[in-house]
Amino acid sequence: IQQVFKQLFYVVNAVTLNNLLLRKDVCSWSTGMQLRFNISQLEEWLRGKNLQQSGAAQTLEPLIQAAQLLQLKKKTSEDAEAICSLCTSLTTQQIVKILNLYTPVNEFEERVTVAFIRNIQAHLQERNDPPQLLIDFKYMFPVLFPFNPSSITMDSIHLPASLNLEFLNRV
Start and end of every Dilute domain (predicted)? Predict the structure, then answer.
């Protein structure tokens, strides 16, 4: 069950983040607030179902950081440093794309300046990120089956002759 929910939450993360990276109309402060609220509801549901050890919440980390990126101030050099230290699960390309797509919803917000984006790129230049923008939503985590040893010893097993396993020898 834990592995199923980890995979499910990964798909939710990938599809949502990919939509965020491809649609200018959703890159805003209010979308960041809505995403963060919805993610907190998912995390609370995981805790309620005692699935916090499943790793499902960790698969949402890039989406959480993208939501926080949409909510942070984006003006000063200190803001750039805060963004760089916060967004460790996002690639440089994803951070820059979200900043480029950021669209103010009301008159109190401002567009992200080109100088600020260049400042972010300068801070993140030493990162060795993969050159991918979108997340592969078809990725499948390996299924792990727990090993439960049997209390029956191999010496006590009787193999019926009808199985035609005469080639097996007891050691």
Answer: 1-126
In a domain, 98, yes or no: yes
Alpha helices in 61-130 (DSSP H): 61-71, 77-86, 92-101, 114-124
Residue from 55, 20, 22 nearest 36 by CA: 20
Q: Which of 128, 126, 133, 130 is nearest to 98 (CA)?
A: 133
Mention every residue, 6+ apart, whose C-beta is less than 8 A from residue 137: 11, 14, 15, 18
Q: Is the pTM of this model over 0.70?
A: yes
Q: What is the pLDDT of residues 65-119, one digit of tens each?
A: 999 999 999 999 999 999 999 999 999 999 999 999 999 888 788 899 999 999 9
Residue 166 clears pLDDT 90, i.e. is over it: no
| Domain count across the chain | 1
Contacts of 36 (CB under 8 A, 6+ apart): 64, 67, 68, 71
The answer as to whether 14 is a domain residue is: yes
Calpha distance 35→45 (Å, rounded): 15
